[in-house]
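Hi C.,

You asked whether I'd gotten around to modeling the 734-residue construct. I have! Everything is below, sequence then structure, no commentary in between.
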Amino acid sequence: MALAAAQTRSVLFIKRKYLHALRKTCLWFSTNDTILADQRKPPPKTHLRKSKKKTTLTDLSWEERLADVVTPLWRLSYDEQLELKLKHQERILSQLSGYLSGELQSQSSLPVRTKLSFPVLPVLPSPVRDGYRNKSTFSVNRGVDGNPKTVGFYVGTGKKGNIVCVNGDHLLNMPEKHTRVARCYQDFIRLSSLEPCLLFHTGGHWREVTVRNNAEGHTMAIVYFHPQTLTPEEVAVHKAELLNYFTRGPGSVCQLHSLFFQESAMTRCTHEQSPYQLLHGQPHIYEELLGFKFRISADAFFQVNQAAAEVLYSTVRQLCIPNPEEGGERTQFGGTLLDVCCGTGAIGIITSPRVDRIIGIELIEQAVEDARHNAALNNVLNCEFIPGKAEVALPGVMLQLSSAGGGPVAAVVNPARAGLHYRVVRALRNQPNIRRLVYVSCKPDGDAMRNFRELCCAPDPKKKLTGEAFSPTLAVPVDMFPHTPHCELVLLFESRISCSFVSSSVLKNACRLQDCCMFTASRRTFLPVSPSHRTHLTEPHLSLSLCLSLSLSLSLSVSVFFRAAHCCYRTPFSAKMTETETRTLHDDKQQNGAAVAETSVEDVFDDTYKMKEGPKPPRMLVWRNIILMTLLHLGALYGLVLLPSASVSTVAWTAVCYLISALGVTAGAHRLWSHRSYKASFPLRVFLALGNSMAFQNDIYEWARDHRVHHKYSETDADPHNATRGFFFSHVAG
């Protein structure tokens, strides 16, 4: 007992020391800059105070409506904004705590009150709160006065057809340099003889403009242009007019450091697909973060709030590799830093003085080139950046680290909103040298929550998660976007292996915040978008046979439909279909009614499956399929004979039935019930079940079962559609 008490006192002491070091590191960023930022007065709020009379959209000006869309929290004081964001982050993290404690395992729809099991620090404020954006994209559309050549931001939606483009000069997060370029671009396109491109298919040429700037005041503008049917010579004339306007004409007041022009017929176009053409100035601007210099190209990713980015990266650095002078843990975490989704290498380069080696992995090759250039620019020699998908590159890197025996590894992951691929999580979990992992998420209530649970769940051989689980030990929200509800969350995970040695992970988990609040957490369903799968369908067999009329198709599939319709009432995939565990997550902001969908891993290719050596399994013919497919094709041939005598209405009805049956297979049996890529309401599920029954391709149970097995064991003896065994086997007899 005495020994336990002594350990507890040491835990509390080291914990307070660690948190004090972190607060001391981050507090430096919220001094003079914050005070200066607050001196800018917000718009008048006297007429915006709450009253008994309910405010409607018609009572608001267009500027207020736009502010409510772009900066929804602009009416609140900054302290109120931080309090609101903290409560939101705690509500999200209480779900993770509930999952770890087992309270959210049940399928009950009732809210669960869960106490946070790890500390959540107050939101670290942004040193600059007004005009903080260093990148803005202004759209072109019809303005309040009906002029289609208005540059600004949208109010309304295209679906409702009520889009109005409003100038953004009054927005609190918009710097004056950006709005000045937008005003000049608006004046230019109003002088131009070309029309704006509001919709690609309606013609027009001038599209949006993107403005970037750095702390030194250098400004870069990128103008997007749809060439339509213009010749290169005609496009060159308008490029020259644009260049002349911004260098010698009225637009010269913008003092552009760089002017780019991109011809694009797509909504988003990379430099490789359509190069950015430099019309004026330098090809790059440079930004400084925590004493390191970074090159910013036209399409490079960089945090939109430079001052808050220093707070964010300083926090990440301190959590990944604690300062040896403050944390005293340099020898424990100083081997290698693994930077997954590294972008242009900012985190790795900033952390490089504290570690022996940095390994960064990034999908976009241009970003990898920028990262390598940034490392050379700062004379950082211990950084290595690898291009490619993290789920492909990471296992090899992990194997290399294991064989090298380079000591403990700290990892930082900063993925996009879609989160990490499950193979990345598997590689991180199964690497015993990773003692500390920092996850940076811009949307923790999205797919990142799935990653959190996979990192913290018990070892699961079915999911190949054989390594020891991580434990969340500290959460630090960072306000990167004042006046908006968005917030970056930095979450520290530590390996439970080190917990048995009373390491810093237990120290952080043992010391709670003084007042852990109780929250009623709404259940949420997080639906990661399933990876793209190649379609394996045979619906073209159907088209002309429907000329016999719908009665033939329905009479052959009445029994099939009643079995398929049963899927509309419950999830049709039980444990009898697969031994792979499914994950069910809940979201209180479902876009499709109360329908609940599931994500699974039983349709993911199993790269560990090995076919048995020796003779192939005997071929077994499924005579039911052979006979029915034969009759179906004979009916199609007979339909060709009847086609010349068919009326126009019969042919039209045939086309409608073909489309319905195709939707039943593609959107229903394939995307909804096989891969569960989206949620569907009950009426839609009934419609898709009916359409699938018309397609004459087995019932939903068999279709989904075979298709999942086909994906998991593709082109092996376990694949019911193994193409290597011939066309007859894969399409008819299998």
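If it helps when you're writing up: The chain has 20 helices and 18 strands.

Thanks,
B.
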